[in-house]
Amino acid sequence: MKFILKLALKSIRYRKAALLLSILSISLSVILLLGVERIRSGIHDSFTSTISGTDLVVGARTGNISLLLTTVFHIGYTNQNVSWESYEAISSSPEVSWGIPLSLGDSHKGFPVLGTTADFFAHYKYGHNLAVQPKTGSTNIEEMNCVLGSKVAKELGYEVGDNVVVTHGMGKEEFMKHDDEQFVVTGILGSTGTPVDQTVFVSLFAMDAIHSHFYGQEEEEHDVFEDVLNSHEGHHHQEEEPNSITGFFMGLKNPADILAVQRKINNYKIEPLTAIMPVVTLTELWNIVRPVEKMLMVISVLVLIVALGGILATLITSLNDRRREMAILRSAGAKPKHIFGLILIETIAVILSGILSGIIILQAVAILSKNLVAEKLGLMIPMEWFTINELLLLLSILLLGTLVGILPAYQSYKKSMSDGLTVKK
Amino acid sequence: MKQIEIKDLEFKWKGQVDALLKIDHLKIEKGKRFFLQGESGSGKTSLLSLLAGINAPQKGLIELLGQPINKMKTHERDEFRAKHIGYIFQLFNLVPYLSVIENVTLPCQFSKHRNNAFASGNNAKNEAIRLLKHVGLAGKDVLHKPVTELSVGQQQRVAACRALIGNPEIIIADEPTSSLDEKAQQTFIRLLLAECSANETTLIFVSHDAKFSHLFDKSARLENGEIVYTEQKSKGGAK
């Protein structure tokens, strides 16, 4: 069989012009399949680790996903807030290690403004336990200071020392500016690939001070505009505790307590609250987009099938032209099984070189575009060697290819049996 | 000593009603050169495929080197062919992606027997060069040319070397000269006969053209699937 292998390789080299297209179509489908798989797992990983290290997210009674969307992704509004008293009571219970209060609802030029405390930068983690770090400046949000996410700074062109005006509501329209309430940028964060990049961080106390009356009275029906006009003068800047917050993140001393604490909060007597484990709810949220993920996979598999079909067509057409070659080999003593082996090895070699060139191209593209993708899309495409999934994928391409190769190999086996040494062509 | 013997043979292809070949008796002695003439469609290619062990007859006996190859299994016939038979086609004898030497040594790759048939210290490659030298093809310009660029006459001579390498007992040549011009035909046949004589190889030479039959020990014609012996102008001595 060693000689047949040699023969197959020489035959491929002789036919390389014709086979190049087959190799190319295989390598393209390998690039597509692996690329989709890699991007998918990259998105999945960075999505499900949007927030890590936080054991529980707490907000007013609402659905799990909507609480996650509001507090972590800063999408949508909560109807209810959590009273400061409840926050204080829960976060000072013995099982709790730390709490990060969150106050949302304001925006700056379309970017959400998050009122929080310095604890956010101390305890909020994303990815594999990564802390949010400033790229320039510091994370000081005391008084009227603010810190910008990387995307906010980039899109709006802010630098440390610039002034930022906060708007009530989440729109880009600035009809409700607090003109006299300008924040000063003290720091710009590094890119994280999480909603942090699109967030303006201010002090919870400063935010509350600006418009405590909004939150204070929102539960009742009233005309916000009139309210602003009437009492705009009335706020003050002391670091007073706010009446209420949107929600809070919590870290526990012992992870074993998570379920117990979650149950306790969900049954909280004083006000209706919801506590979620962010990892669990992130996965729930991911499941919503799973069909899209599957579609991508299906499309890639279809492309692979088309590529394999192309190879099959090329091989079968070439077989007829090669009947004489088979007869010569037979006359020189080759057995039908040698003919079978020759064609099968050729097919496998073509598919293997397609796979290899695909991998090489993909790795090269991934390495070259790594920084670009991380910066532009905030997506860390994993660069480590192959995951089990990818290896399985490659293996199944090879298996499928071998299966595809068996058909022409068997055909030429049959033909060489019946043709024997007679060839009409 | 008989090398090839056919007795009471009947052969037809699948789906045929009447037998294509009906040979009562054919015997060729070791080292003899046998000329077989037949029009196209006379069944000569079928006869050769039987002799080469590609197909088996429905009736009768084919004995090569004293072994009944019609009773062998397919793979045994394959092995027998690789070991004992050299085969030359009418045209396009060479594998296009192999070099001249690789084409000549091809049988040695499929048969250990033929790979070990050389004098000690010699290998298949040297033997190939020796044979090529005999047929006038050992020049560097020929050896390193892609085989597709050789002339038809050169290709046939390379094919003859391939058939001869490793000293198979029997060489079957299926119209090897039909694509050559007269001068090349002469050269080719003389070279082939000389090599066969030197090695005491039994040669079965098939052609539709009887003009060279006088160079052979014995000649016959295939007519209606039967062997008809023809007058021998020279030598004789077979049977």
UniProtKB/TrEMBL annotation, chain A:
Keyword Mitochondrion applies: no
Species annotation: Draconibacterium aestuarii
Subcellular location: Cell membrane
Ranges for domain ABC3 transporter permease C-terminal: 297-416
Taxon lineage: Bacteria, Pseudomonadati, Bacteroidota, Bacteroidia, Marinilabiliales
Protein topology in the membrane: Multi-pass membrane protein
Keyword terms of this UniProt record: Cell membrane, Membrane, Transmembrane, Transmembrane helix
Pfam family, one: FtsX
Transmembrane segment boundaries: 295-319, 339-368, 388-410
Gene Ontology CC terms: plasma membrane
Designated name of the protein: FtsX-like permease family protein
Annotated MacB-like periplasmic core domain residues: 20-267
TrEMBL record, chain B:
One Gene Ontology cellular component: plasma membrane
Keywords for this protein: ATP-binding, Nucleotide-binding, Transport
Pfam families: ABC_tran
Matches recorded under Gene3D superfamilies: P-loop containing nucleotide triphosphate hydrolases
Single GO MF descriptor: transmembrane transporter activity
Domain ABC transporter: 4-238
Annotated PROSITE patterns: ABC_TRANSPORTER_2 (PS50893)
PANTHER family: ATP-BINDING COMPONENT OF ABC TRANSPORTER-RELATED, IMPORT ATP-BINDING PROTEIN
Name assigned to this protein: ABC transporter ATP-binding protein
Lineage: Bacteria, Pseudomonadati, Bacteroidota, Bacteroidia, Marinilabiliales
